[in-house]
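Figure 2 data, in text form.
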Amino acid sequence: MSLSTALSIANSALQSNSRQTAVVSQNVSSARDPDYTRRIAAVTSTAPGARVVQIQRAASELLFKQNLAAVSAREGQSAVANSMERLGTTVNGVDNASSPASALAAFQQALDTYTATPSNRTLGENAVNAAKQVVQALNNGTDAIQDFRIQTDADISVGVDDLNNLLKTFEGVNKEIVSGTRAGVDVSDALDRRDALLKKISAYVPISTFTRSDNDMVVMAGNGSTLVETVARTVTFQPSAGYAAGMTGNAIYVDGVPLVGGTGGNTSASGSLAGLLQIRDSVTVTMQSQLDEVARSLVSAFSETDASGTLPDAAGLFTWAGGPAVPASGTLIDGLAASIRLNPAFDSSAGGDPQLLRDGGANGAAYVANTNGDASYSSWLIKLGDRLNAPASFDAAAQNGTSASVMAYATNAIGWFEGIRKEASDAAETKNALAIRTEKVLSDQTGVNVDNEMSTLLDLENAYEASARIIKAVDDMLNTLLAAVN
């Protein structure tokens, strides 16, 4: 081997050593960046001993895609679980204190007390006031649910705006990668930024990806629509100005294809947007239907009956927008919980008489039950109490059974909600643990281990010393040669 060849080899080794050291230093400095993928300095040798360093990323496509799926599942579940926590408190209050079931329990107690002493006008007044609280609970519950749907719409709108911004940013980074790949420059940093964007996008919608030539990536949504193919597609959503019971919210469109909300407490929703759609169009709608069914059953249970049997039943203590007619049995009427009212004929503050609850006759003489005007008359009150606890028919669309007393139905509605909420909360913990696990596995595979990097740095230091000794030896030989010539 000639001295010039040995010198060339040593110089090449120093240059490759320098690049490898720079890579290790970058790895160490970026060790705490969760979006950083470890760089590998791959060294290849060519004759006569020259070294070429190629920078590679320690990426794992399979693990990365599994992590994206886990992130989507976690965010969809979190959207459902967190929304249900807020929804329960908003509609039913802390410990369900302001729920219709609690108000009904207090009303039943007041009604039983009045039944025991029907001659006491004050107890009649108390029963009517308790009925007011039931009406207020149903009215307020409806308002709270529809306001919650409006707020959910606003959250969806913010999420859609964020998603569109992420897609536009992804488009720019992807073009940078394609351009850099074609030019033969290192695009590792841009690839890290693109992966970080994919994680953020997957938090909103489930995604799948495939890479074409020149590292050009195409991103598809879980519903099969295109999110990015050279250019970012637009995700559109128009929030509603207001909501009423039975009203359907607007869809989210991804490249013209509607996004479908999730189902169940352990939701099928992937991505926060699908979770929010489930809350807006499923959970809250079902809660509203159950309130409407409680209200409908109350109007029916406290309706007045014509003693002769010739006139139709008429709304009694509780009336509604369709009163004095009584709503059909077992048939859901959207918004009835919003329109239910205390019949003013019973309300002393509106000029009514609370003793009509004992005697009947709010709809005229034909509906009077206490025809003799006995102060101790309790038969009608007993009948009303029996109706309150008797099985009634309910619409299956409300998902709370089809036969129960109104008291049991209202209590079961809380049980239905708490069951879904508990299931959603437990599933959120499970899916969060899975996402954390996949992130750790991915990090172990592609992240930076500082101990390993420092060990590599020591090896590079030894290699540097070896190359330096070669150069020193060649220098000594050249000096000896020059001295001999001179």
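Caption note: Residues 121-183 form the longest helix (63 residues).
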